[in-house]
């Protein structure tokens, strides 16, 4: 297994067989079906492509940015390795017909906003856009048509909108691998209490103790529901946040939100503890 994938397993503290499912949880996606399933195979191909990128060659977000550039939604210079990763994603998705695209979109819980993104990419047709309200309305209309029709009644633009949306969602998975493989989390001993809250305490240096709490973010809206219902997936998912406090009365504190899953919030909190310990940030 490639070095980047190995480091991701180490940083997330999971065996290789669980890496894909864990990364999906990190970005708030359902895990693909187990076994030799085509949806799982597509996800594994994306991870292999991102895992082959040399350490330090890309920053988290570069693959998503490259996807936006290729779609005509962003005008920017991007590193060559990100183009290579996006090309692999596009080739993988381009092999799918409408029925298989729908199955992949349903299995990945594609949201309405993501479908609108795909519609905007199709309408941009490679030309950078500038937030034209008429274009946004057209993208919304195209996305609505896709959602209301069965795959056998999709036209070319409907099919390409779903493809573009899947390019972006798979790019998010690749970026998650980049981030995790180069992150430096401090492993914490988490305990779970009421309402799924996770608590951890860590001592740093001479007499410095940080208390860490991961909980649902009551002020953030729930994660968007998927376009196509799937009984095997939850109807709504909560957003999460972390909060770190220090001092005898917790007078020094900092929090960050929202995160799409408890795992994402825990991982971000552990990376923040590393930064606090190294003096790269403070509460």
Produce a short descriptive summary.
This protein is of the alpha+beta class and 283 residues long. Helix content is 49%, strand content 12%.
Overall description:
The protein has helices at about 5-10, 20-25, 40-50, 60-70, 80-95, 100-105, 110-125, 135-150, 155-180, 260-275, and strands at about 190, 200-205, 210-215, 240-245, 250-260. The chain is α+β, with helices and mostly antiparallel strands and about 280 residues long. The chain has a five-stranded antiparallel sheet with strand order 1-2-3-4-5, covered by helices on one side. Helix 3 (about 40-50) packs antiparallel against helix 5 and helix 7 (about 110-125) crosses helix 8. The protein is globular.
Per-chain topology:
Layout: H1 3-12, H2 19-26, H3 38-51, H4 62-71, H5 80-94, H6 98-107, H7 112-124, H8 133-148, H9 156-181, E1 191-192, E2 198-204, E3 208-216, E4 240-246, E5 252-259, H10 262-277
Antiparallel strand pairs: 1-2, 2-3, 3-4, 4-5
Alpha-beta content class:
alpha+beta
Overall, the morphology is globular
Radius of gyration: 20 Å
Mean pLDDT: 88
> What's the SSE pattern?
HHHHHHHHHEEEEEH
Q: Which ranges are low-confidence, i.e. pLDDT below 50, for 5 or more consecutive residues?
A: none
**Largest sheet strand order:** 1-2-3-4-5
Q: Count the helices. How many? A: 10
C-alpha termini separation: 38 Å
- Main β-sheet: number of strands, strand sense, barrel status? 5 strands, antiparallel
Which percent band covers the strand fraction? Answer: 5-15%
The level of helicity is 40-55%
**Quaternary status:** single chain
Annotation, overall tally of beta strands: 5
């Amino acid at each position: 297994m490639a070095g980047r994938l190995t480091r991701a397993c180490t940083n997330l503290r999971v065996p290789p067989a669980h890496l894909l499912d864990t990364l999906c949880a990190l970005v708030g996606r359902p895990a693909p079906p187990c076994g030799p399933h085509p949806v799982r195979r597509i996800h594994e191909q994306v991870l292999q492509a991102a895992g082959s990128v040399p350490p330090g060659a890309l920053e988290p977000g570069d693959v998503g940015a490259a996807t936006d550039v290729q779609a005509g939604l962003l005008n920017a210079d991007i590193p060559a390795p990100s183009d290579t990763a996006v090309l692999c994603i596009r080739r993988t998705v381009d092999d799918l017909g409408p029925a298989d695209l729908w199955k992949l979109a349903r299995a990945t819980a594609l949201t309405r906003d993501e479908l609108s993104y795909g519609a905007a990419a199709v309408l941009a047709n490679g030309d950078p856009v500038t937030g034209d309200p008429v274009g946004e309305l057209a993208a919304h209309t195209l996305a609505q048509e896709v959602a209301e029709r069965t795959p056998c009644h999709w036209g070319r633009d409907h099919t390409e909108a779903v493809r573009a949306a899947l390019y972006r969602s798979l790019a998010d998975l690749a970026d998650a691998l980049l981030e995790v493989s180069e992150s430096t989390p401090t492993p914490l001993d988490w305990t779970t209490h009421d309402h799924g809250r996770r608590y951890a305490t860590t001592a740093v240096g001479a007499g410095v103790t940080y208390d860490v709490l991961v909980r649902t973010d009551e002020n953030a809206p729930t994660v968007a529901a998927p376009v196509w219902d799937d009984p095997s997936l939850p109807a709504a998912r909560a957003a999460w946040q972390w909060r770190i406090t220090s001092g005898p009365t917790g007078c020094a504190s900092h929090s960050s939100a929202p995160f799409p899953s408890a795992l994402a919030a825990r991982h971000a909190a552990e990376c923040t503890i590393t930064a606090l310990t190294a003096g790269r940030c403070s509460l």
